[in-house]
Amino acid sequence: MPKPRRFVECCKVIVPEYTVGHQTADDHNAEEAIADNIGQSHDPTMNPFPLFRRTARHPSAILLLVQLSGMLLYPFIETTHAGLIVFNAFGILVLGFTVRMVRKTPGETWFSATLAMAIMALLLLQSLFGMRHLLPWSSALEALFYFHAAYSLISYMMDDYQATTDELFAAGATFTLLAWGFTHVFILIQTLQPGTFAAAVNADSARTWTELNYLSFALLSSTGIGDVIPLTSHARAVASVEMFTGLIYLAGVVARLIGLTMQNQQK
What we know:
Elements: E1 6-10, E2 13-17, H1 25-39, H2 50-56, H3 59-77, H4 81-103, H5 106-129, H6 135-157, H7 165-192, E3 197-199, H8 209-220, E4 228-230, H9 233-266
Antiparallel strand pairs: 1-2, 3-4
C-alpha cells in the first residue's frame, strides 16, 4: 500500500510530498518541474545560483563530466607525483559525493566514505614517502570503490519504470565507472606479475594508467583490444570478464533505458 501523502502547491504546480521513504521517479520528475518553474522566476532572490541549481539536479551529469575531463587531463599529470595524488583524491571525493546523492542509503554512504578515506591515505603514503609497495592495496581498493559506485548507479537506474534525464547521464557515468574499475584491476595484476601486458611501443615497459584505461574501454565496449594486449592467463581471464560485463550492461541496462525513453515519448 502506498504511504499517505499530502499535496502542496508550489509555483502553481501540484506535486506529492513524502515525509519519509525512497524517492520514486514521479517524485523526481515533479521536483524537476518545480525547479524549472523556479528557474523561470524573475525574482533574483528565488534563484541566486541557477547554474548550481541545474547541476545539482543531475549529479550523474557532474560525475560523467569529471570522469571525461579526468581522462583527457590524466596523460599530462600521470608522470608527476603531485598531479597523481591531486587527481585521485579529487576523483574519489566527487564519486563519494555523487553516490551519496544518488542512493541516500546510510550503509552504502558509510561504505563508500570508508573506502575513500582508506584509498586517499594509501595514495598519500605513496606520494609523500615513496611507499610504492602499497600500490597493489590502493589499486584493489580503488577497483572495489568504482565497482560499488557502478552498482549503486545501476540500482538507481533499475529502481523504476521511467527514464529521467539524470538516469540517462547515469548510464554514461556507470560505463566509465566500470571501465575505471577494471583499469585498477589491471594495475593490480601488473604490479603483482610484471610483464602482464604488452604494447606496440616499449613492449617491455610497464603499462601506464592511460594505456590500461584505453585497453579497459576497448574491452568494455567490445570495439577491440588495440595495441595493448594481455599476455598472461590471469590478465586474459579478467579481460574476458570485462567484455562479458560490457555486453550485459549494454543489453540489459542501456537498452532498458532506451526502451523506457521511447515508451515515455509515445505517451
